[in-house]
Amino acid sequence: MSRTSGWRDVALLSACWGSATTGVVLVASVSSLVGNMLATDKSLATLPIACSWGGTTIFTVIASHLMRHIGRRAGFMLGAGIGMVGAVICAGAIYLASFWLFCGGTALLGGYNAFNNYYRFAAAEAVSAERRARAISWVMAGGLIAAFIGPLLARLTKELLMPYDFAGVFVGLIGLAILAVLMLQFVHVPRPAAHEIAGPQRPLGEIVRQPVFMVAAASAGLGYGVMILLMSVTPLSMVQHSHSFADAAFVIQWHVLGMFAPSFVTGYLIKRFGVPRIMLTGAVCNVLCIAIATSGTSVWHYWSALTLVGIGWNFLFVGATTLLPQTHTVAERAKTQATNEFLVFGFAGLASFFGGNILYNLGWTVLNLVALPFILIVSLAVLWLMLRKAPAAAAATAGE
User: Fold this and answer.
1) Where are the alpha helices (DSSP H) in 158-260?
2) In a domain, 307, yes or no
3) Peptide bond before 151: cis, by omega within 30 degrees of 0?
4) What domain count does the chain have?
5) Cβ(303)–Cβ(254) under 8 Å?
6) Backbone phi, then psi, for 361, in 5-degree steps?
7) Which residue range(s) make up the domain with 70?
């Protein structure tokens, strides 16, 4: 594949990721509010989001192994089909006022998200190894589409099918999935040769015990979990503190900007300063987020805290994704990526499940403090990896 065609595919994958992430923003913006509207027990308001991340966790293993056999493009289109079915079920659940049916629909939307999360790996496979970090960053930058379109689409479609509040949001999600399928017709991601797929493989236990894998999975998983813990309950918390839905949508919009705008420079920063330093910077952003969130509940506090946690997530997630290919061969790729994604989105699912309970029972301040130990764990893990690599780097320099 030529260099030009590789970057063309990265651009298309970025646009597809933007469409997919817009759907995630839609679900994040309204699911807890719909849950609060439908659930008898209001402490279960974030359960639909937890079901979404649970669906992502389960489907992520299926998606990885399935794509190994049918290819990335076919896998992404299958995922879009699952997303359309989930969106129809969610809209129907609102019509029927069924909380549990809504949870089932969001679980399928989580399955859609599981397939979509492989866009960044597809980008890494579309270019040479030395351009991998930039390709991952550029695909992630496609999420900026979601920052502008997601909250706007949520506001425009919220009352589209009145008197069934929020049902129209899921009709909009169907349109996004169809758009992704259309763009995928022009994407080509090279499939590994048969001899590469059939190559020797180490036991999974040996792969996951590698220090690089442990740090990559912990950083992505805990970083994602902290981000979801705060994002999933932000609309609820803001409504509790007398802020409007428009204010909440504005905060989520800036949160998504924080998640994806840095992607234009994250790849360059990783190349310039190294993965560990950028990941540590992400952890610092999360600590600052918690400091601001615990100091007040004005729109400004929510806005600045959620923007910072978005930036922190970007540095941790892109950094961890850049590290992961160092841990596996082509033959081991499917099971390694599946294991990583299972751990990452398992943490996200747990965070979204407990978020509603913590918010209702203990409050917004305690919720943020709960996140702090996990950020400290990530920081220590990255520092541990840096210390392990330092002697090897010094020996390599001395030998030159």
Assistant:
1) 167-184, 194-197, 204-208, 211-240, 245-260
2) yes
3) no
4) 1
5) yes
6) -90, -30
7) 3-189+203-389
Question: Which whole-number Å values give the CA distances from 179 to 16, 17, 116, 185, 272, in the listed order?
Answer: 8, 11, 14, 10, 36
At 296, give phi and psi (nearest 5°): 175, 170
Query: How confident is the model over 23-37, as a mean pLDDT?
Result: 81
User: Could you read off the pLDDT of 196-250 as tens digits, one per residue?
Assistant: 566 778 888 899 999 999 999 999 999 988 998 888 788 888 988 888 878 887 8
Residue 102 has pLDDT above 90, yes or no: yes
Strand segments, DSSP code E, in 74-158 are none
Tell me the per-residue pLDDT of 141-195, one tens digit each, with 9 for 90 and over. Answer: 777 777 777 777 777 777 777 788 788 889 888 998 999 999 988 887 766 656 5
Q: Write the CB contacts of 258 (distance below 8 Å, at least 6 apart in sequence).
A: 306, 307, 308, 309, 310, 311, 313, 314
pTM above 0.90, yes or no: no
Checking 380-384 for CB contacts under 8 A at 24+ apart, the result is: 381/214, 381/215, 381/218, 381/219, 382/215, 382/219, 382/276, 382/279, 382/280, 382/283, 383/276, 383/280, 384/211, 384/215
User: How many whole angstroms separate alpha carbon 69 and alpha carbon 205?
Assistant: 23
* The two structure tokens encoding residue 19: 């469409």
The CATH number assigned to the domain holding 78 equals 1.20.1250.20
Grade residue 392 by pLDDT with cuts at 50, 70 and 90. Answer: very low
Name the residue with tokens 């290819």. 71
